[in-house]
Write a structure and sequence with these properties.
127 residues, 4 helices
Length: 127
């Protein structure tokens, strides 16, 4: 596939996931079960698709710049994810939030996905 097709495909998938995320989030909010888990993952998939639509033309070339962006992104994401885990453990230990294990893992998974892809977008503008 060429760059243009990749970008269009990611935008189409992003819109699809956005519509699904809106539907699922409205349903879980109206039934007062937000966050159910899968609804946050759909939002994370939406962010991932739109970030990939932005990054696809740049990441087709596997040069030093893209390797540096990926490397730094994973480093920053790792640090932030450790922070997310510490905050989640603290919140769960002191019973600030009443969430199930599935919801906690889904929240952390969504945060990991969003963090890694958004840091790539930020770093691609920086480098």
């Amino acid at each position: 596939m060429t760059k243009q097709y990749d970008r269009k495909l990611f935008v189409i998938l992003g819109v699809f996931f956005l519509l699904l995320a809106i539907l699922f989030n409205v349903a879980t909010i109206s039934t007062r079960t937000f966050p159910a888990g899968h609804d946050l993952m759909l939002l994370a998939m939406t962010v991932m698709c739109f970030c990939n639509a932005y990054l696809a033309p740049q990441f087709v070339q596997n040069d030093e710049r893209t390797k540096k962006i990926r490397e730094r992104s994973m480093f920053y994401s790792y640090i932030m994810n450790i922070g997310f885990i510490i905050v989640m453990l603290t919140v769960l230990y002191f019973d600030i939030l009443d969430v199930t294990a599935y919801q906690a893992v889904a929240i952390l998974g969504a945060l990991i996905i969003v963090t890694s892809f958004l840091t790539m977008v930020v770093l691609s503008k920086r480098y």
